[in-house]
């Protein structure tokens, strides 16, 4: 249903923000005295309130214990600056007319990130290295995905959202867990608790402004803990407009500036993936949505997947009672390259801090900043976003190529799902190739290299989940999910 898809997108956006940056409840002062609302009523308000002309700015604070001290390891060998977001820190945040600016000061150093919607550019500036990167973004009419979803109108109402909440009850429970104050603003506490009992995720809380229905802060808790692992939120907030010049960046003299054309990179990726590439996928997805078809590829049985590939599939033995098999999917060479790049970015985000997506909303505020190498900008207004995932500058500046040659990757891979919801483990396997081995060798030191169940493995674990990549025979395998490291290790040991 088109309306529930809007809600899904809203929830997915909040979850993505929380998992990438982390969020702390900022200064919960006095109890709020807002009217009582249900989760469906609050989500309806969030989905239907007009935020097209929103202006928000203020001071923000965050903590990120996802990687512990590994997030503070020296990253000079990668040619990348440590992101302030990988530890605890604070900064200023501005959002206005679709433009975004973030000035961050943290344990990993000081940075500025800017996104300018009209100019279709994004900038990052790092003080410690006096380096800047400018990203040219694809045009807004670029058909790399589905058409924007129209705003909810007509007969759409809280009852529709309540029905959606009931449908997702098997995965998570969404409730209004109370009221609080954030940065002096009365706010509702919107809470999501996973239904799965075998997940490392405890709960996610989003503090929603009781007047504007904008998120003011978020917290993510691991299972069995009342201390948020990642958190981000406003400490002070304003809705006043600022000078639009603040959403541009003029690097100071002597800055080493790198330019990256993401539009051109997208064109290259389309050419590499051919008729099944992004353009064809985007056109088909848009057509499917227009026709009301939101179906996903049907999962295969292990036998059906085996019949489609020319290598012997491995599966966990005597594991059905722990996490039942949910289905298998066969992916092609281009998809393998895309997922491998995503894994590389996820694994190295703690060292480069350069990955981010184009913002869908945010905040704005205050006087005009002047970028200088001496320290972070402390006043001003600009559109900011951390650079897109495919634009990491770490290896490029260090002279190490991170380009993946799809032609040298396996022709096919198989992905399988075991378990459901937040307790699921995703398992992928493909024939080993020199290109796969080369990419594994480039993983940052935060990805531990060790023996697991007698296999050479690369492991990264956090309080909220983890990922293990290992070699078994002539295959390269990967298992990951929002589960404990012990559960992942047990899964690896069961694979035969």
Account of the protein in words:
The chain is an alpha+beta fold. It folds into 2 domains: 2-265 and 353-398, Lipoprotein localisation LolA/LolB/LppX (outer membrane lipoprotein receptor (LolB), chain A), CATH 2.50.20.10; 286-346 and 401-494, 3-Layer(aba) Sandwich (Protein Transport Mog1p, Chain A). It has helices spanning 2-20, 39-48, 158-167, 262-273, 278-290, 302-308, 333-352, 394-398, 434-441, 485-494; strands spanning 55-64, 89-96, 99-106, 109-116, 121-126, 131-136, 172-182, 185-194, 201-209, 215-222, 230-238, 256-261, 325-332, 412-418, 425-431, 448-452, 455-462, 465-472, 475-481. The strands form 2 sheets. Strands 7-8-9-10-11-1-2-3-4-5-6-12 form a 12-stranded mixed β-sheet. A 7-stranded antiparallel β-sheet has the order 13-14-15-19-18-17-16, with helices on both faces. The longest helix is centred in the last third of the chain and has 20 residues, at 333-352.
